[in-house]
Amino acid sequence: MYKSFSMELAGRTLTVEVGRVAKQANGAALMHYGDTVVLATATASDKPRDGIDFFPLSVEYEEKLYAVGKIPGGFNKREGKASENSILTSRVIDRPMRPLFPKDYRNDVTLDNIVMSVDQDCSPELTAMIGSAIATSISDIPFDGPCSSTQVGLVDGELVINPTQAQKQASDMALTVASTREKVIMIEAGANEVAEDVMIQAIFKAHEVNQEIIKFIDTIVAECGKTKHEYTSCAVPEELFAAIKEIVTPEEMEVAVFTDEKQIREENIRNITKKLEEAFAEKEEWLAVLSEAIYQYQKKTVRKMILKDHKRPDGRAMNQIRHLAAEIDLLPRVHGSAMFTRGQTQILNICTLAPLSESQRLDGIDDMETSKRYMHHYNFPSFSVGETRPSRGPGRREIGHGALAERALVPVLPSEVEFPYAIRTVSETMESNGSTSQASICSSSMSLMAAGVPIKSAVAGISCGLVTGDTDDDYVVLTDIQGLEDFFGDMDFKVGGTHKGITAIQMDIKIHGLTRPIIEEAIRTTREARLYILDEIMAKAIAEPRKEVGKYAPKIDQISIDPQKIGDVVGKQGKVINKIIEETGVKIDISDDGSVSVCGTDQAMIDRAKQIIKSIVTDIEAGQIFTGKVVRIMNFGAFVELAPNKDGMIHISKLSDKRVAKVEDVVNIGDMVTVKVMEVDKMGRINLSMKPGDLTAKAEEPKEAKEETVTE
After folding, report:
1. pTM of the prediction?
2. How many Å apart are CA 438 and CA 418, to the nearest integer?
3. What is the third-level CATH fold of 3-150+196-224?
4. Fewest CB atoms less than 10 Å from the CB: which of 178, 215, 315, 605?
5. Between vectors from CA 46 to CA 227 and to CA 141, what angle results, nearest 5°?
6. Was 492 annotated as part of a binding site?
7. Which reaction does it catalyse (predicted)?
8. 367 annotated ligand binder
9. Enclosing H/E stretch for 525
């Protein structure tokens, strides 16, 4: 049965249509927010696949370019693999939804969101987040929802709910918060060094709005919701737990996991697993769930040690950071490099500089960002965790980690005018045992400074964890969680920032939300750790950006020309600019406003290219001095190329102060000579002189014969 529901959300109408399309999905909602339209569906398999020992949730966010009136680029003219924005949006939908499914549920579930129409003032990403929650809530799939998401901007110091495109461009913050009825369940943020108290205020303003949306969802579920279906529980039998504890006592398990050496702990668990497999060799039904039982046993042991005994597996205090180290210039030929180590987590970051023409072009549904000049990429090879697997390119996790570090560093980058380079940093994971994304922020910050990128401030990142008990006030916040604490804990709260404030947040949790005291403590804890890393570790490796780029990095000089003369520099079919590039070996980028970037590794050739461009755009007048190439010789004199398509003639009598019998006695074709413009006649012919006396005679040089039309 078709039904439609509407509410006002941040001054725009949100409409949900149920029963109009996609009726064979377990749940479907056709979402309208302004003129943005997203189809959100939730579908589950009838039963689990054989051998599945985890919850197989897939979240898709599909950007259709017809939604913004575009035909896809490329040869096939259809959408290809998911864009980076699609992947990141899928992850943001996944993170609040996943904890709300039953922990013992093993049926395949797919949440699919198809963006069909885009109103740039009404975020399709936000519409999909709410749509996924509605589609799942009204379906027969077991789900402890609903949940809701809200975006917050900060414009002129004021918090703005679900900002429009214009407000996003002016905003100092891009915050997304997801909530259940009582608690915050997900935070994702990028910010221009926003103070911690402002961030907390924004988070809970979004939480309030989420409560209004959840009430709206409740009305939809009341009218359209299906009865949740029964499923086969994959919970471990209690009798198996009891049998395991008779063979491996809690004290033995505590000894097995109580170490900061990941390899030792894994070897201990392998030995325990082997002992239990031998003990239960004749109980096939127990062997099928033994790995899950051992996992649960480890989890209970670690959580009890932390929450009740206040002991961490590696012996650290609750607010203690692992051993830290930082160094730069590990790789001699790259433009910048730095390595940051935190315990068994180690990231080597490499910075590469290039002309702005190397910026990444984006082909998507967002009109705000069509290109980006800073790219951060994160790689996670299998050797970093002591495993073996083939490399198949970056997965969603790698793309997400790279984007998080990129978001943390963008606010401190210099403008294109200050630093006209495209910048790429690559984080190579050398070793991983928790929070590699935050180590990437630290190493990237140092790598940029080592490369001579004049960033406004160093940025550091740190993660904290959480273990909760039976009540809201029974919890422990852990600074700098290692892999085991992340694996068995309830939260991974990542915060990047400077001395001044926060530049990025990403919060993942495995429980049904966080209270305000936990969030406030997490933000305070990460600030204290971040400042320690900035002052005591990173600043001792490199305190500020180098004044110049390295000798192997390209040098870029900028000049400005009259935009009306861009065509003269480019020439017909690019012949002029290509000739300059061929002669000097530089790269030249010209913007519509007349900004010209000249890039090369040889400063002399950069200067030569600039000189040629200046000569092209500067009107030639008597008194000006040029250095040009002799291109033709006649009996009566020599022709010198002052600029492409601009030749002047030196009469034989003007080649020297002495009498010249033959032109070739003084110059030959290809010679570079310095000449002075003596006259530009009525027909535009340029008469030159090489006489030393003429070159040094300043009295004849008109005042306007300067390069004031060209500024560097």
Report:
1. 0.86
2. 27
3. Ribosomal Protein S5; domain 2 (3.30.230)
4. 315
5. 35
6. yes
7. RNA(n+1) + phosphate = RNA(n) + a ribonucleoside 5'-diphosphate
8. no
9. helix 516-532
